[in-house]
Design brief:
The chain has about 140 residues and is α+β, with helices and mostly antiparallel strands. About 25% of the residues lie in helices and about 35% in strands.
Length: about 140
């Protein structure tokens, strides 16, 4: 009985540590300054990010995050989607948060759309130059359980 209790406690501690690390990664990604500038090529105002040292340190590194798929009908069932740190009703595209709460995800394998929270692992690329892409891009990603 005592062994079972200790095992459960250890599992809870491990889960709490992993979950805290993922929330911590979204918190680090929030350390960015956004400046609106007029883009001559696009002929409209766009957001340009200035990343903190902490964010720059994650560039090119493998990270793990939890979040929700943005339901973009034309992209369902492919290997590309947008991951939001927040549920769809609160995500950046719906006006509830900033652009630092979403990232483009390119999976190694195709995935069908889900409304459930998912966990992804992949290589982070930060984007400060291309206003037609999100500022965070996760490459070579995979869904993990």
């Amino acid at each position: 009985m005592l062994k079972r209790g200790i095992s459960i406690l250890l599992l809870l501690l491990i889960y709490g540590t992993i979950s805290a690390q993922e929330k911590s990664t979204w918190n680090v990604l929030s350390k960015v300054e956004i400046e609106k500038r007029f883009d001559e090529t696009l002929n409209f105002e766009v957001d340009f990010p200035t990343f903190s040292k902490e964010v720059k340190a994650l560039n090119g590194k493998e990270i793990t995050l939890e979040g929700w798929m943005i339901p973009l009908d034309e992209l369902r069932g492919k290997n590309y989607f947008v991951l939001s740190a927040l549920p769809f009703a609160n995500c950046f595209f719906c006006g509830g948060a900033g652009p630092e709460t979403v990232m483009e995800v390119f999976l190694k394998k195709d995935l069908s759309f889900t409304e459930k929270r998912i966990k992804v692992k992949g290589k982070l690329t930060i984007n400060a130059d291309d206003p037609l892409k999100l500022m965070y891009i996760l490459q070579e990603a995979e869904i993990i359980d």
